Amino acid sequence: MQTFRSKMSLFVMTASMLLSGCVSTLVHDDVKRAAGIDGHCSGSQWVDDSSIAVLPVPIVAFVTPHFDLHQVSSEPYLNRCGASTRVINRDVSVNRVACLPAGLTRIVTLGVWQWCPARVTWSADVLADTPRSASVSLGEQ
After folding, report:
1. pTM of the model
2. Which are the contacts of 92, defined by CB distance < 8 A and separation ≥ 6?
3. Residues near 36 by beta carbon (within 8 Å), at least 6 away in sequence
4. Following CA atoms 48, 42, 19, 99 in sequence, which dihedral angle do they give, to the nearest 10 degrees?
5. C-alpha dist (Å) from residue 31 to 4, 73, 105, 126
6. Which tens digit of pLDDT belongs to each residue from 12-66?
7. Which 8-state DSSP code applies to residue 48?
8. Parallel, antiparallel, or unpaired for β 117-127 and 113-114?
9. Could you tell me how many helices (H) and strands (E) the chain has, helices first?
């Protein structure tokens, strides 16, 4: 029974260490004020986060650095919520857990290319559109 528990705890620790690096946060704001919030915007979408080797020579490509074919940034997703001046409490993260089984594409292409389907999740609070009062009075001329 003791060996089962030690093997199970080793498995849990290994799995948590492997999966902990699969989610990266692009933007995370601390929660600010709650007054004047008009609504909440959130969503998620699958994106292509594939990469290709800098030196695309088969087998050698396993040890060379890779660069992303599609840059995943927070701006396109937060712009869906509204203007950047009206969006607070932003949170955008990229989950790359699906890249682990898709890593077989790197083996098949001998290290040249790796397909990585990633899940982008975003949420933000949208401030109410406040009308500006006329601060300049027109004088009679």
Report:
1. 0.71
2. 25, 26, 27, 28, 74, 77, 78, 120, 121, 122
3. 127, 128, 130
4. -10
5. 43, 21, 40, 13
6. 655 554 555 588 888 888 877 767 788 899 999 999 999 999 999 999 999 999 9
7. E
8. unpaired
9. 4, 7
